[in-house]
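ASSEMBLY PREDICTION REQUEST
Request ID: AP-0331
Submitted by: J.K., bench scientist
Number of chains: two
Total residues: 1064
Priority: normal
Notes: Please return the full assembly, not individual chains.
Input sequences:
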Amino acid sequence: MNSINRRDALKLGATASLAALAPAVSAAAAPAMAAKHDSVPQWEVFEASFAGPSAGNPFVDVSFSAVFTQGNRSVEAHGFYDGSGTYKLRFMPDATGEWSYRTASSAPELSGKTGTFACTAAPAGVHGPVRVASSHHFAYADGTPFYPFGTTCYAWIHQSDELQKETLESLRTGPFNKIRMCVFPKSYQYNHNEPAVYPFERDAAGKSDFTKLNPAFFAHVEERIADLRKMNIEADLIVFHPYDRWGYAAMGAENDDRYLRYLVARLSAYRNIWWSMANEWDLIRSKSAQDFDRYFRIVEKEDPAGHLRSVHYSHTMYDYSRAWITHASLQTYAFDQTASWLAAWNKPICFDEVQYEGNLNSRWGNLSGEEMARRFWLGVIAGAYVTHGETMLDPEKPFDESANPTLWWAHGGKLHGTSPARIAFLRKLVEETAAPGGPGAKRFGLDAAVPAGYYMNALAQDATGRAPGAILYFMDYHQPLYYDFPLPEGTWKAELIDPWAMTVTPLEGTFKTKSRIKLAGRAYQALRFRKI
Amino acid sequence: MNSINRRDALKLGATASLAALAPAVSAAAAPAMAAKHDSVPQWEVFEASFAGPSAGNPFVDVSFSAVFTQGNRSVEAHGFYDGSGTYKLRFMPDATGEWSYRTASSAPELSGKTGTFACTAAPAGVHGPVRVASSHHFAYADGTPFYPFGTTCYAWIHQSDELQKETLESLRTGPFNKIRMCVFPKSYQYNHNEPAVYPFERDAAGKSDFTKLNPAFFAHVEERIADLRKMNIEADLIVFHPYDRWGYAAMGAENDDRYLRYLVARLSAYRNIWWSMANEWDLIRSKSAQDFDRYFRIVEKEDPAGHLRSVHYSHTMYDYSRAWITHASLQTYAFDQTASWLAAWNKPICFDEVQYEGNLNSRWGNLSGEEMARRFWLGVIAGAYVTHGETMLDPEKPFDESANPTLWWAHGGKLHGTSPARIAFLRKLVEETAAPGGPGAKRFGLDAAVPAGYYMNALAQDATGRAPGAILYFMDYHQPLYYDFPLPEGTWKAELIDPWAMTVTPLEGTFKTKSRIKLAGRAYQALRFRKI
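STATUS: Completed
Returned structure:
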């Protein structure tokens, strides 16, 4: 599956780049004219540029939006000021066929502009934005299941160009299809560098004017999001975070909201965006849960694509039952609570911070690779999804933070750990086992039809759609010499799996409930059953 | 420490046997006379036999007790009917010097008997019964700390003589100083054999008369308790349990209470008794928590030695805050809750069932040896105590329960697992690290003076008695390349410990807070610090 995804991603990359760049070029050629594209593929970015006022503070003074129409259907998208008197509109058409639009603005020269374009079929390998599916899972808009196997590189887009390229190369060859990353630069232990560009205008003394956004900064963010899109990697974009020495964490409600609206206007046409409203929201002292409620309502209202929305915590959970939360984004490794949380929230669960593989001094950053891989298995078996992170110091270098080590978790770069290969193995197992056709028809996850057993997950349903068709077992630290597998009705084939050695060994014969199977008699083994 | 204990135990064994046997011999010689011993060592068994009524049902009809007096102090001890018209009194003197006693009975011929004996100093290696010390820990009556490293052989005394001898030999050479064992035989998965003797009289059809106890059965129980006493192993004696096909779990309150009083009268003079009122009390359908409350009140009132009292559960915890509970006996491996439970109950905590090392089909019985050893470390580091169990099938034999495998957890026999050697290693570390003089003076356990860190335990206090003197760290699945150990004030020596390889490697130099120490960079390592 991975190699196919890679090929699709490469093909897609070319298409997507053309689609994203073409409007900008045409706008540059005719800045005051409404753009006219003959066609934009489904789930790619339609963009049009317009000349407008540059006096005063356009970010504050000028409103600009458009209504996109197809038949009786209308969708509102906000435009944004891109500097130098240029205003842009972006829109991700989600249905093929003819679309038209008409602008509205507080500036007469931006009002009443109209245009049309045809939305053509999506290229092969493009499945649209990710949505919630079957309550507890995810699928692309076209129904293709999406199983998040994420990683974390909080500040990778604020490192040197060379390091960013290295990160992209690691992501291209790595096992991850989602990345947690911050919009704002990061100030924290091991994170002391200044970004190359800043999100707001600064005076000579370095004081930011939070009313004046810096289009170059956001153009860089979107370039990286487009890079990820080429590789079919979802950008779990962190809007606010507490690791800050520039003031971005405490700009005040008016500036927060303007920044947030600007992000939505610029980025929501990228199909691979997930809105993570904060990392560790409860550590941002200047913001309350009520502030986050307001942010979510803004995004719900202004994001025409309806991207996924969540928020990550440190100690105090945000209330994931709230209507505007699409999925839980947890910092915990209490996988045994998954079932009760799924029942309580009826939403997918991403264990987005389960500590990191590494060898740091801090205990959040020094898991063994075995333990990180184990946590992926525990999360998947529980019916949830898990996110990786890596904080590996080079053992040959002195233990000195001032040496500014490059740590994947913050800076990106290269992966050094032993867990990514095992995560790739698990992802492949899940993707090849889960039934095609989308989780709507073939559910992935815990299934009440499967007899209870805490290290088991029904990965797919059978042809009837009403009974399990594939089951994955993980034995964790248990080492039974044999096990009476409580298989549901039917005849099953079985494979012994070694999650660490990454081997799959088919067992001879077929099995029915209660099938007694001799096992390796050692811990950390798994089995896969598939219904014949 | 272990080898010294062994030697002491052997020396003690000879003494204890003499003390236990001598009165029985003298009683046999003069059954109707009050016994007169010149001397009994402290914490050994004084026993006297008397002839009394044998008609009717002496267990029901005859009351018999004595008051033991030393100076102004009086202690009541109940006697018991030992069959064939013989009544016995047992008493464990807890203070040296002259003692006298006077009997009372509903039978005139057992009333008003008197006698005296001298209680001499305890032999070397005899420290008395175990008590709670420093709220959360244990010590023998003479103040010597006792750190429970227990095991589980529920039904070992109901197996063949040969197997019982093998069990005793395994215990003699093993790392354990406490054993959980049932009075009643056990009927459960893998436990299908009949005992050689039964606790109550049975008719030809096998129906028990619960009003008539079988002295031979209880003589066998006490013989095994004496065997354990020789080896300085505490008998955590399980009074009731649900694994029953003979009716012992549902005898009714009157028979329960009579049986319990009989046990107390016969056994409380054995210093190595702990009363475990049940295994999985909540699975005994015929008994309520109120029944257990009553049992505890009976034992509190009638046990002159005041042995430790607890009860073990399956799903529903007994309320360990109740006044008559001396320590918690948990079935869980939620070690991270230890601190809150210690605070809530202010009593020692024994994690008495944390699943078993083994390879059974059932997940309670198939932990890897690594995981069992890890659980001991986690428990000790949390400031609690942990109990071992082993359920290893012979991998060379067919997986067939009807083959009646010998499993340590139920039957005793030989230990096959990999954890006991590591438990011995940890026990040695704890015993040699904890300061001498008893936990009253030198606390073993979590200490508020030590900066927080969840894998750390202050094992002893320094010479001032007010600050930590030794600290044990366990890194679990963390693999820091270095760690800034937050040592309390003072200068410290350090050793790297590999809990699985069982190595202790002294580090060069001395350390002060915050001492940065380079580590192995792999998981499951430990460190010990000792203040200079």
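REVIEWER COMMENTS: Confidence is low (pLDDT under 50) at residues 1-34, 437-454 of chain B.
SIGN-OFF: pending second reviewer
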